[in-house]
DNA sequence: GTCTATACAAAGATAGAC
DNA sequence: GTCTATCTTTGTATAGAC
């Protein structure tokens, strides 16, 4: 017999699953409690309130995303492939964990016009991780200021993939489109910056 | 004294403004009523329920976006510029109407895991308008199957811009990044043509 | 640490008068 | 068509026992 996880763990699992599937605000506390088979008092004893629980669940999920992504970066050899690994990681992330409707972090952000400090920090961490790691990988690939530009643009494309999934696109197709687009951006910024100058209005 | 708009109009205005600023689910009916200075019974007499009101407000906003975008397409001359006009339109749209946190349609979608039929249709209309118009403009620019691919990729980039705004990016910067990225995608799929070769057979 | 039972607040919707 | 007043449901959180 597998020993039953603690009430705390069950609550985190349930909160993560339901936030991923339905969104955090859309999920009532009762549903989390029912799924975790835990009583209300236990939740509030451990996490203070609903947002406290969600924040902990999001932090845990971000850590898992972080390590999945890092694995994919490590598996890649060429610098360009290391940059594109974020798309491989997204596909792997989506199949290894509870499937999310699009992105738990963007979803929580969209649902919460006025997040508390802890929640806001956690949501910002997701964006910061994206931009910072992409910038570090870019810097290894091309020198100077363009690294930040490249990181921002890949983040934009990556975010577009997530948004397309929210729009109802097939996830695999959206990821492939994003990857192809990002590859274009990488080559354009690495091969010379003439390609973007004509695009300004 | 400007004649006061009807209660129905005031309700639509209030619902649109608040959905744009805070999101639809996050905004209680009472707040809409307060802003519109209308009583509850009037709302339900006109729209049946909250979702009915929101759907009408979204339809009206979609029609305005549609015409703003079409104007920008018409103002552009070269086919590539017509494709990129969606970014010009986004900037114009955002300054001409009540500023929205990111995108009213994606926001409503993110907030509503199980939308009613009318709402789902309205939200899908937004995506359909994007993909269809971009595909039509693409077809005028390059022949054959790639038109659908190009439309999908520009939609992805455009959606990425909206997501970056949700992430907290400066809107102007995100739009410029998206436009540059889209220009890259267009040229790559057009077969390496430059902007000057606008007159193709 | 965890449970049962319950309090308290917010939100959506309706009744009936004018 | 619009208002005032109210009802119902749902959701968050707490009290007190084990």
From TrEMBL, chains A, B:
DNA-binding in keyword set: yes
Signal peptide positions (record): none
GO molecular function: DNA-binding transcription factor activity; transcription cis-regulatory region binding
SUPFAM superfamilies in UniProt: Homeodomain-like
Domain of life: Bacteria
Record's keyword terms, sorted: DNA-binding, Transcription, Transcription regulation
DNA-binding region, residues: 28-47
Residue ranges annotated for the HTH tetR-type domain, each copy included: 5-65
InterPro entries named in the record: Homeodomain-like_sf, HTH-type_TetR-like_transc_reg, HTH_TetR
Protein name stated in the entry: TetR/AcrR family transcriptional regulator
